[in-house]
């Protein structure tokens, strides 16, 4: 049983895909091959996870200039031919599209060669690649019920998340308030700027508050400068880091999280059962981060601040208001946990295997 997972680009695409691949390999004995591009993070993460990776050449079509779009469109037939060769030589029985640059050619090649396809869509509104092939997919694994309308057949599975997030216990209502702020592995300038300006107000309003702040590489020195303007006592209540390697432990320590709202982050928030203030990346493709955040806001699990309205004062006021209402914070956390999907990887793997069965028979 041989399965190709096509797509990548960001950790939000690749990390859940690796979880699915591990489930296929360990539980179903499948051979899994990844199809990606040279520009994506899959070139680093996939080999490190022990899976083979084949590359196709394809550019961007969504939210790019007309010149880039035209260049990509002209090169797309060659990308599909390259993907077809990879599927044929590997003997793929099914193709799983996880979104990103390589997903389009990989899924198109599978459809044209009559191979069954499974779309994995973590965002509320499908990404460009999945929208292009949606009508021809045999099945789709989605995170939100609302996403199902884009596909002829679907199943709500959620997004694969590391098991450590599901083991996080709720914090006691009388525990000291802890805020975790981060903008992804690279940091987020808007969040960093607002956090730096909000520190004096936050620390003055809540004398027992502790802050854990992941800045990314570029945001670290400005954060150090912001701490240098605080008193020694206040600065000692703020922990800054370029990158936090033990994120499940940091989630466990926090009462409230300030972050972006990419699909993987939203899934981790739900798995951990944490209240959140989402600040969506406004330039994300199809504004999918705002749609993801709105889904949790509607469920009572989070609040949302649009980046154009983000100021240190707005951020500080929101944080103080939420942390000051421990019962309300607990209700938000419970609402978030109710949206978690602990068996996502297993369910998606089973969906892929189900598509193979008719071919095996």
- What is the rounded Rg? 21 Å
- Helical run tally: 15
Gross CATH architecture of the largest domain: 3-Layer(aba) Sandwich
Assembly level: single chain
Task: Report on the architecture of this protein.
It is built from 15 helices and 13 strands. The protein has 361 residues and is an alpha/beta fold. It folds into two domains: 2-160 and 342-360, Rossmann fold (3-Layer(aba) Sandwich); 164-337, Glycogen Phosphorylase B (Rossmann fold), CATH 3.40.50.2000. The protein has a seven-stranded parallel β-sheet with strand order 3-2-1-4-5-6-7, with helices on both faces. A six-stranded parallel β-sheet has the order 10-9-8-11-12-13, sandwiched between helices. α7 packs parallel to α8 (217-228), α7 packs across α13 and α11 packs across α14 (326-337). The radius of gyration is 21 Å and the shape is elongated. The relative contact order is 0.13.
């Amino acid at each position: 049983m041989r399965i190709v997972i096509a797509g990548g680009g960001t950790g939000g695409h690749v990390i859940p895909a690796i979880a699915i691949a591990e489930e296929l390999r360990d539980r179903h004995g499948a051979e899994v091959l990844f199809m990606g591009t040279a520009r994506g993070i899959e070139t680093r993460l996939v080999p490190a996870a022990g899976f083979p990776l084949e590359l196709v050449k394809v550019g961007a079509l969504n939210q790019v200039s007309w010149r880039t779009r035209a260049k990509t469109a002209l090169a797309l037939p060659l990308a599909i031919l390259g993907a077809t060769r990879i599927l044929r030589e590997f003997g793929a029985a099914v193709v799983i599209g996880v979104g990103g640059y390589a997903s389009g050619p990989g899924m198109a090649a599978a459809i044209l060669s009559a191979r069954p396809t499974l779309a994995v869509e973590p965002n509320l509104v499908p990404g460009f690649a999945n929208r292009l092939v949606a009508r021809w997919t045999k099945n789709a694994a989605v995170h939100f019920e609302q996403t199902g309308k884009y596909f002829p057949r679907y199943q709500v599975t959620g997004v694969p998340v590391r098991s450590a997030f599901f083991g996080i216990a709720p914090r006691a209502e009388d525990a000291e308030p802890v805020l975790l702020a981060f903008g992804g592995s690279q940091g987020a300038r808007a969040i960093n700027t607002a956090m730096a300006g909000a520190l004096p107000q936050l620390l003055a309003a809540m004398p027992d508050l502790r802050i854990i702040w992941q800045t990314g590489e570029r945001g670290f020195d400005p954060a150090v400068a912001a701490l240098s303007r605080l008193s020694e006592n206040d600065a000692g209540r703020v922990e800054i880091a370029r990158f936090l390697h033990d994120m499940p432990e940091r989630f466990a320590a926090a009462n409230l999280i300030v972050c972006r709202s990419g699909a993987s982050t939203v899934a981790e928030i739900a798995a951990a059962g944490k209240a959140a203030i989402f600040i969506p990346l406004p330039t994300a493709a199809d504004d999918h981060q705002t749609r993801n955040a709105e889904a949790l806001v509607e469920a009572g699990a989070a609040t949302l601040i649009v980046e154009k309205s983000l100021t240190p004062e707005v951020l500080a006021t929101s944080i103080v208001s939420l942390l000051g209402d421990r019962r309300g914070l607990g209700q938000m956390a419970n609402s978030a946990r109710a949206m978690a999907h602990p068996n996502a990887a297993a369910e998606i793997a089973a969906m892929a295997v189900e598509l193979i069965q008719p071919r095996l028979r």
